[in-house]
Design goal:
Elements: H1 2-9, H2 17-26, E1 31-34, E2 39-41, E3 49-55, E4 58-63, E5 69-75, E6 80-81, E7 94-97, E8 101-107, H3 108-117, H4 119-145, H5 148-165, E9 169-170, E10 173-175, H6 180-187, H7 191-203, E11 208-210, E12 213-215, H8 219-226
Antiparallel strand pairs: 1-8, 2-7, 3-6, 3-8, 4-5, 4-7, 9-10, 10-12, 11-12
Length: 246
């Protein structure tokens, strides 16, 4: 799992051997297993640890009192949950397991120590946080301005890029365990409309979706439909200027 996390963070800045070793040790801390559809932490809880997703998928979400839910982000292996949560007195959202999930729970004090003593690793974590915020902005645009087919196309493009970055796409196929209800809650489209939209996308040859396996025959075509530009994911080593000389 350390290699997967390194692959992601080194898109932002080059890590030293000591940084990589530290990442490896972090990925073995306080391992916790969470069953599907159970919360990893809930809104209102006092944050004591940073959860690192090692296996499985999770979602960041908020719920209304009547049970309606908005998914704010999909979290995949290699993702940190809220590395700056130590500044909060309580969490303002929840993170729940979409599938069975394995997390490493890193004490907040260790994250703070990394910020003080590991400049390159700290910079990589800061880049990662900035990318999470950029994704949130893109999702706001998605819900506010794009049509249903544009929203879902854009989301699939984003997930493919993120999963490819950490080596989780093979032969052009990604495993996406989101249900149509999950897609509805992530895109602001009704489940019925999600179903119709996916049927249209299949008919147009944009996607092939069987169970959890999703294949995109023509990624350029899907990106055009979703008006997708991967620039907001900042995966072209924009943080290269932060590399140390050695």
């Amino acid at each position: 799992m350390a290699d997967l996390i390194r692959l992601k963070l080194e898109h932002y800045t080059r890590l030293s051997a000591d940084d990589v070793q530290l990442l490896s040790s972090l990925s073995t801390l306080n391992i916790r297993q969470i069953q599907p559809r159970r919360d990893i932490f809930r809104e209102g809880e006092r944050p004591k640890v940073v959860n690192l997703i090692l296996d499985g998928w999770a979602v960041r979400h908020k719920m209304l009192e009547d049970g309606r839910r908005q998914i704010l982000a999909f979290l995949i292996p290699g993702d940190f949950c809220d590395t700056k949560n130590f500044v909060l007195s309580e969490m303002d959202h929840s993170v729940g397991a979409l599938t069975a999930v394995t997390v490493a729970q890193i004490p907040n004090e260790m994250i703070q120590d990394i910020e003080r003593t590991r400049p390159r690793l700290s910079q990589a974590l800061n880049w990662d946080l900035l990318v999470q915020l950029a994704i949130q902005r893109e999702w706001t645009l998605n819900v506010g301005q794009r049509s249903a087919i544009e929203r879902i196309s854009h989301l699939i493009c984003e997930l493919f890029v993120r999963m490819k970055t950490v080596g989780l796409c093979h032969n052009g196929v990604c495993n996406i365990p989101a249900t149509q209800t999950d897609l509805s809650e992530a895109t602001g489209v009704t489940p019925v409309h999600v179903n119709r939209t996916l049927q249209e996308m299949r008919a147009r040859g944009l996607i092939e979706w069987k169970g959890r396996e999703v294949r995109v025959p023509d990624m350029d075509a899907l990106q055009r439909v979703g008006m997708f530009n991967a620039g907001y994911l900042h995966l072209d080593r924009e943080g290269a200027h932060l590399d140390a000389n050695e």
